[in-house]
């Protein structure tokens, strides 16, 4: 560029503009290489993920999967305080116990106060009507001794009250 050109003093602006254009083109090309074709197909995520998740082995079956063999426990829970609690929340994924309705091995049973206290530990933020306890005080009031499985000494988890 000649020194008598009217753009001589604006050459730094022209260079910055050219660099900006090159950066935008590079970002668009890079994005087209990195973003999968199915992105945004069903919303703000990768559409191919749906088929990938369906192809995974099902591990959880919900309470209805327990009904076939454990109808008595199912009915007890349905009419008790833990009606909204999923069996697998206290036990384990159903796939560890049964596959396609066939028994695989014994279902693990978690018998620890910590499990109960996940929901029933006293917290000021919980609604007052929700059953909450201060564990040590509660056990002492009942004349017991606090231990790892103390809740199960008095409460049946399928019908806790």
Index terms:
161 residues; Helix Hairpins; 3 domains; two-stranded antiparallel ribbon; 8 helices; elongated
What can be said about this structure in brief?
With 161 residues, this protein is mainly α.
Describe this structure in words.
The protein has 161 residues and is an all-alpha fold. The protein has three domains: 8-55; 59-109, Helix Hairpins (Orthogonal Bundle), CATH 1.10.287; 110-161, no CATH class. It is built from eight helices and two strands; from the N terminus they run αααααββααα. The protein has helices at residues 11-34, 48-55, 64-67, 71-78, 87-90, 113-120, 135-141, 151-154, and strands at 98-99, 102-103. Strands 1-2 form a two-stranded antiparallel ribbon. It is elongated, with a radius of gyration of 31 Å. The mean pLDDT is 87.
End-to-end distance:
89 Å
Mean pLDDT: 87
| Count of individual helical segments | 8
Low-confidence stretches: none
Total number of distinct structural domains: 3
The SS-based structural class is: mainly alpha
Which band does the percent of strand residues land in? under 5%
Largest sheet: 2 strands, antiparallel
Which bin fits the share of residues in helices? 40-55%
Q: What spatial order of strands do you see in the largest sheet?
A: 1-2
Shape assignment: elongated
Tally the beta strands: 2
Task: Please compute the radius of gyration using only Cα atoms.
Answer: 31 Å
Q: What is the helix/strand order?
A: HHHHHEEHHH
List the helices and strands and how they pair.
Layout: H1 11-34, H2 48-55, H3 64-67, H4 71-78, H5 87-90, E1 98-99, E2 102-103, H6 113-120, H7 135-141, H8 151-154
Antiparallel strand pairs: 1-2
